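Predict the 3D structure for this chain.
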Amino acid sequence: MKSITYSFSVLLSFILIMPFMAHAQEEEEIYTVVEQTPQFPGGEKARVDFIKNNLEYPESARKNNVEGTVYITFVVEKDGSVTEVEILRGIEENCNKAALEVVKSMPKWKPGKQRGKPVRVQFNMPIRFKLQDVKEEAEKNKETKEKH
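Done. Predicted structure below.
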C-alpha cells in the first residue's frame, strides 16, 4: 500500500509541476517566425544607415581586394537588446570581425511579439563588403571637404 501511495504522490507532483516547467521553457524559446517581427529603431532605412555609418572596412581587406557578404545571426531579446551574435558564413577574418562588431554595437530594437507579448527572436542579416561603395564614399567626402 505504501508503494502505491508513494507512486501516486510522485505522479501527482509531476502532473502539477509540468505546466510550470512548460511555461518556463516557452519563455526561453527563441522564435524564428513571429506575428510581429523585431524592428530596428527608425525602421529599415535607419538600420541600413547605421551599418553604413558604423561598419569599418578593414584596411587589410581593402589592400587585398576582399569583397563579399558576411552573414550574421543574432537574437533580439524581449527587451530589444541584441545577443548571441554569431557568423553564419564569413568571407575573411577581419571582415568577419568588423561585421560582428557593428552588429554588437547596435542600439536596442523594438522586440518581436507573439500573441501580443515580447519574445526572443532569431534574426539573420547579411553585411556586404564592396570596395566600390568605399571608393564612392571616399570621393563624396573629398568633394565635401573641397567645397568647404
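Residues 48 and 58 are 19 Å apart (CA to CA).
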